[in-house]
Write a structure and sequence with these properties.
- It contains 5 helices and no strands.
- It is mostly helical.
- The chain has a single domain, classed as Up-down Bundle (Ferritin).
- Helix 1 packs antiparallel against helix 2 and helix 1 packs parallel to helix 3.
- The longest helix has 42 residues.
- The protein is elongated and about 65 Å long.
- The N and C termini lie far apart (111 Å).
Amino acid sequence: MPTTTSKNTGHKKNGTPAKTSVKKAPGSSQKKNAEENQEELFKLFEHALRDMYWVEKTLTRSIPKMIKKAQAEELVSALEDHLDATEDQVSKLESVFEGIGKAARGKKCVAMEGILKEGEELMEEFDGPILDSAIIMAAQKVEHYEISAYNSMITLARLLDFVKEADILQEVLDQEMEADKLLTNLAINTSHKEMVEA
């Protein structure tokens, strides 16, 4: 007896239309996802860049307040040097904006706004010899936030193949790390030490 084959009519047994799968071109969805991911990474990088641009420009106004309150000559000198470095960093970030084809615009960094506000409170709460220690503490909190931010931005820049921009950001990071190291040395060898030995 000959066997019969049932044809696929495109319907389920109960008469409802069967779902048909549409084959996509190999790799097309992966390519689209990769492009979308690249765009999102770029948005994240631009967001971080705008944050730090606001931070550096704000610090050009905040550091002079620290300089005015600082007492030890070494601390005043360190802060003055870092003010110069910060002004240079503003220019460096403007170069990064130019490199990625975006206008240099800042976006308020809520985290840094809080750190700076805390620093101002410390400078109001303490005076005398301990004030320098308070300034160093406030300044190092700023540096540590910046170091963390620039590390992340460099990683994103390299992922996005912004080679020149990553190098510029590395220069900024090196400046921030040097400033933090100097503040630590000042705290250990001058400010905090003088308080303990007084």
